[in-house]
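Workshop exercise sheet. Pairs work together: one partner reads the sequence aloud, the other fills in the structure field after running the prediction. Swap roles for the next sheet.
Pair: D.N. / O.F.
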Amino acid sequence: MGFEGFALSRVDVGEATLRVRHGGSGPPLLLLHGYPETHMMWGKIAGDLARDFTVIAPDLRGYGESTGPAATKDHETYSKRAMARDAVDLMRHFGHERFMLAAHDRGGRVGYRLALDHPGVLQKLSLLDIIPTADVWKRANKAFALGYWHWSFLAQPAPFPETAIAGNAEWFLFEGMMRGQTPPFADDAFEDYKAAARRPSVIHAMCEDYRAGASYDVAADEADRGKKKIDCPVQILWGGKGALGAWYDVLGLWREWADDVTGQAIDCGHFIPEEKPVETLAALRAFFLG
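Structure field:
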């Protein structure tokens, strides 16, 4: 459980300083988290992964205890392209020019953008509970508007969402977003998420992430559609009790973006590594070690 035995550091990657935990030995494996979390979301499986891999788990720029740059009008500084640059520079800091990557939610969007922008860098890529960003917006309908309403809300111009959230950010991000469901988070991870939620800079970074997701990231995807493909094996995992499998042909969509795609549903909701750590660990190990 947790990151026992991992080193904790702060790594300057140029545009941001990332809080990072790293440990283990073996082939390098980068873990990227999603919204509204931090790298602690991997705590239930990181120790086991470290038996086979050198595991590196940062907070994305602006999230958790990582710093982020100033926002720009085009939202590029919180785009997945910018976060992918962070990831490549972080791994080079640790001496890894090529590596494997497992990424959930927003981190997954960073992951596939990294694969498209930096061909040859990724050896294998596992994406958890996402479809490509441009395809999300292209297929947006009533079910999406009601179920994933935060995509539109957080993307509204500043300071509207930041101001609305500021009154009770912890309630908004967890009780409100989860609609009364019991969160599947380990205690130490949940405390980390709540501590981050109390920092206005983190709330602003999250909103900028979603603003980029509604603008810059879509444009980047559309510019690459039909022209670029992910050049490494891709695993797709999604929550069988969540929205993705009900709304989309998940594997079919990803096969438009990569030639080598496999995957499966896990019997859980959105927070796959935290809800079903044993099953997630088994799927990741089978893919990365296979």
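Discussion prompt: The two ends are 24 Å apart (CA to CA). What would you look at next?
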